[in-house]
Design goal:
Layout: H1 5-21, E1 28-33, E2 38-43, H2 51-65, H3 69-78, H4 80-89, E3 100-104, E4 110-117, H5 121-134, E5 138-140
Antiparallel strand pairs: 1-2, 1-4, 3-4, 3-5
């Protein structure tokens, strides 16, 4: 079952509300489908101009690698040459820091990813997970084990 616009909209709105309720810095949220296409996007007032690129890169990198950006962050420190190559082949679209969370359906199949930028990476990730779960889907942020 593909990620729907209704689900993506719920993810964005709940992620932003989670950030507001916690008094996080202004957030930017990008939701991609399983093919890496942008389905939904919102940028809060006063969010920096690079935040879309960072949010998109977190989600796109998670999709491209097949694991959440938390795992990418853990691996990047251990495999610097490999991640330098990934940055090149992805034309700079891969952002290996927490905040890129895979979206899985009830069967566990990957159907998209969410990327958030604006606060700390850990807080960005919390908002993504809250949005995904509110849409009735499974969040897969990856692990620190790499």
């Amino acid at each position: 079952m593909p990620l729907t616009l209704a689900q993506a909209s719920t993810i964005v709105d709940v992620a932003l509300k989670t950030g507001r309720d916690a008094n996080f810095h202004p957030l930017t949220v990008a939701v991609l489908d399983g093919g890496g296409h942008l389905v939904a996007f919102k940028r809060e007032d006063k969010s920096g101009i690079l935040r879309f690129d960072i949010a998109f890169g977190k989600a796109w990198g998670a999709l491209g690698m097949g694991f959440g950006s938390r795992t990418a962050a853990a691996r990047a420190g251990k495999q610097q040459t490999f991640y330098t190559v990934l940055a090149s082949v992805s034309q700079g679209r891969l952002v290996p820091v927490p905040g890129g969370v895979l979206v899985r359906d009830a069967a566990g199949d990957m159907i998209g990813a969410v990327g958030i930028s604006g606060d700390t990476s850990v807080n960005d990730e919390k908002c993504a997970v809250a949005g995904i779960e509110a849409a009735g889907l499974k969040a897969d942020p990856g692990s620190d084990a790499g």
